[in-house]
Each structure stands twice: as structure tokens, then as C-alpha cells.
Amino acid sequence: MLFRTSIIAVALSLSACSTWVYRIDIPQGNYLEQKSIDKIQVDMTKEQVKFILGSPVMVDAFDKDTWNYVYRFKSGRSEKLNMQKIFTIKFVDDKLVSAEGDFELSENFNTSFNAPITSVTPNENKEATEHKGH
Asked: Cβ neighbours of residue 126 under 8 Å, at least 6 residues apart?
């Protein structure tokens, strides 16, 4: 009887060790990828930004023009794997004016989304090469 009691006591004490217990990973918030961040540009509307990044986790109750995208990951295995990323976007008159946080902005971010695209039409290019030959 003493032997059984001691085995049960040892088994219960070993099961209390955190390395023996399975703990799940807990992701919370908006998981953003750099490729999505690269698509946003100034002068985009709130609707366009929401289409690319999704709805923000937090919108400031006193400032509807500030959106916060927050992502937290709590690992069940190791605290070294825990992470948090924050990305804040600001609008003025329903147009994107700034963004900052744990992601790098693309080279095109400061190029207005509504800026005209300048390109050479095929006819202009053909005329330019014909003049070089004469």
C-alpha cells in the first residue's frame, strides 16, 4: 500500500512540471505581412486600407482617424518565441497620411495613390527610335 501511494505521489509531482504539460500557442490580433504593408500608399481611403490590411484591432475612441493594428503571439513552449508587433495608421479627411510601427514602409508609400502614371505609349516610343536613325 505504501508503494502504491509513493508511486502515485511521484506521478502527480512529475505531471506538475511545466515541461510535461502541453500548452497551446496563443495568437491575438491582426497578423500583418510585409507584402501587405508594401501595398499601402498615402492618399488611400480608409476603405482601400481596410481592403488591404483588414479591420484594425483598435480604433481610438476619441480619434477615429487613428487605426492601430496589434498582433501578439504567446508561445506555449518558450517565452523566447513570444512577440508583439504594432502598426499605427493615421488619416486626415479620410485619406492616409502616415504610418509607423514594426514594419518598413515601401519606397512607394509617399507617392500619392492617385498620382498620374507617366508612361510612354508605343507610338511615341516608335517615333523616338525613327528619329535616332535619320
From this structure: none
